[in-house]
Task: inverse folding
């Protein structure tokens, strides 16, 4: 559950990220932009470091989450077929790769199975 403190922190980081993006897209030198906005260069770089660190932590947490997939009959059937079926030649399979996850499927994979897998990968 989010606390008021954590929400305020997130809003502050978002505002800083918007300011950093504004500075970077302004075409101005950082020192000039900071003078125009009334902040010191040290403050700008501190905020940049905080925003980057928060983004990195968020990315790591997202990557560490386990994505639950439906244990529907279709998924169980696919797992069973993968165990008992001969290897699929490269020219007859579909490959899906995302964030270090690789899924190899036969060309005749059902639309429902493909949609289930894609929904799960969207969360990665």
Result:
């Amino acid at each position: 559950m989010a606390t008021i403190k954590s929400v305020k922190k997130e809003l502050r980081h978002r505002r800083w990220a918007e300011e950093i993006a504004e500075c970077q897209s302004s075409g101005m030198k950082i020192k000039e932009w900071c003078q125009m906005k009334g902040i010191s260069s040290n403050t700008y770089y501190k905020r940049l470091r905080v925003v980057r660190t928060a983004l990195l932590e968020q990315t790591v947490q997202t990557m560490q989450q386990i994505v639950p997939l439906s244990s529907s009959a279709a998924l169980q059937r696919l797992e069973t077929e993968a165990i008992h079926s001969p290897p699929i030649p490269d020219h007859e399979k579909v490959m899906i790769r995302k964030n270090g996850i690789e899924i190899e499927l036969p060309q005749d994979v059902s639309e429902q199975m493909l949609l289930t897998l894609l929904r799960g990968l969207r969360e990665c």
